[in-house]
Model the fold of this input.
Amino acid sequence: MHESVALSMTAGDFDHSGLPAKVAALFGDEQRAALIALRRDLHQHPELAFAESRTSAVLEQALVMADPVSVQRVARTGLVARIRGRDRSAPVVAVRGDIDALPIQEATGLPFSSRNEGVMHACGHDVHAAWAIGAAYLLAARPATGDVLVVLQPAEEIGEGAAAVLQSGALDGVAAIFGAHVDRRFLVGQVVAQAGPLAAAADTFKITLTGRGAHGARPHESVDPVLGAALLIASLQGIVSRRVNPSVPAVLTVATMQAGSASNVIPEIATIGGTLRTIDPATRALLANEMRRVAHGIAVAHDLTAEVLIDLGPPPIVNPEQETAWARQAAAGLLGIDAVVPLGITNMAGEDFAYYMASIPGAFLRIGAREPGGEATPAHTPRFFAADGSLFIGAAVLAETARLASATLASA
Ligand code: NI
Done:
């Protein structure tokens, strides 16, 4: 058990008036203030992947108000709470909020800015955690047909948390799972709930070129991996531009390069690393195969050897029709059909919710998080934050989606 942790923030100056009426009406004044204070507290105390111990202690305390049947610790710093349904034998559905932060120094200037040097909720998971708690409150007040599991998942940013939660067995037998992400491209009150691709496969690669070191003044005695790496980086750019059908989204980014340590020494080894993003299995395989072929080709041409390691990350999220329809219906019922907006782009970011969807039917949404007049600041940057109001939208839409899914599955 955790020691009790006092929240450091109050709801302060949160202005409730901008919330859509149907959503505002779902929460009592006290609950609204508690959720805002929770969110701001989490924002002020961000913790990195698998180090979210204070975060999960705070969340565990916040769950008490939802009177859960049980709260299970999973995946080191995660929690799964079971909220009672009206029919305990009906199929169980789940809603998930991720809880981890990023190694970024915050520059939002918010009064509840991070107190942890170099760590920041720059992806809005503070709001995701708070809306999962909000959904628990709503489902406690008006239960779904069957039990609902509220999953507070650690370590999304390193792509390991969802797999760890699944491995715990806590979600065995779950009939459907729903999750969402804040998005400042959309205003608070707007929701993306559409079938099709919502996030990309996010694979990482590392290529090691090995040659023969020599004095920098005698290059003919070397087999130079630095030249090889430079040519390889340039050649890899030909894969997406020349091998992938231009109508199919794909990204190959070389993000790291390491070689050498002195200006007069040709090193033995050069390594490059980066990320591959795709939304379909064929292109995902093509990028990996072409990368191996080009790396070995460059290596042969320059007398080097190449070792190519490709680490498969989360698969893409491709929302199915049926489960997405429940989410769309929930959002439209709460916010009006005009609030349900198209994504409008292909999102090439990865999201480890995809691991759940590989074995559990489900859908993933985007929840508008920009205040009126605000900028569309991208996530993973020092000035990113989600507007407070987005937490109530996320909580309400996820709770209502769970109810619709639960009712439909129970009657099937
Ligand atoms: Ni995120």
